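It is worth pausing here to work through a concrete case rather than discussing structure prediction in the abstract. The textbook approach is simple: state the sequence, then state the predicted structure, then interpret. We follow exactly that order.
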Amino acid sequence: MTEVERIIKEGVIPVDFLKPEVRCDFLVDTDRKKIWAVCLDMLIKFDAICKKHNLKYYVIAGTLLGTIRHKGFIPWDDDIDVGMMREDYDRFNQIAREELSHPYFWQTHNTDKGSLYSYNKIRNSNTSAISKTFRFAGFNQGIWLTIFPLDNWPLEGGEERYNAIKKLNQENSAHMRRSNPHPTEADLERLAQFPYRDPNIVVNEINTICTQYNGQPCEYIKAASATVIKYPKGIYNKSDFASSLLLDFEGLLKVPVPVGYDNILTRVYGNYMEFPPIEERGKWHDGTIFNADKPYSEYEFD
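Step two, the predicted structure:
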């Protein structure tokens, strides 16, 4: 039985959810719907654990944009993004391995030695979302849900802290590339830039920078460990996360949206109700091998 078959059998989603459809002039085919089904299953599981332990979270990034603009997934998206204040994030990390069992996998640099992301993920081990860059790195590469920690972020010295975290992320990216038996030019450049250093030390340095202002009065917060969004985007007023609204997501559940979602989305995307050009849709995880019906462990690469 595939994961999608299990999810339908358990009543998590209806079978007609998998029907292809055109949304915003973009064909959402059955394969993408299967990815969504696996993501929704993980989100519902995550949501239940948070409710059980009285933990707060918010949908953020593309998932927040999808909730507001599409009442569900952005039609060309393929994952789920949530954020938690660092205190709740750490608490979830403590309970996750007890609450999550196969096929769900709690992925951190401690639970999955090959994974050196600076934030944690829930993976479905019976599926595939294999990174083109890190396919040889030896970590769980099932379809994922990402949990980002939200930390206090004073504006003074913010760009220097961002650049320091970005460089450390690049260092661990270099380490994950070391496993590639056929390194690309980009791999070789990154490896030359960063000689080997214990990646656990690097992760600890990232967390030290990210958390150094927690517990102090601060007007702003940031998913500080993630440096994909160009600075200074991604800095939010803490008041925008003072409470949350429960809004529909794919008609299957209600997700917590930060009360200041308009400020947040405008900060990151500008006119967020405007769609990107057609040729740019679906490019975010371009090159990733997605397969909701086949475990990542069954793929072999030369």
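Step three, interpretation. The two ends are 28 Å apart (CA to CA). Residues 3-151+241-297 form a domain with the Beta Polymerase; domain 2 fold (CATH 3.30.460).
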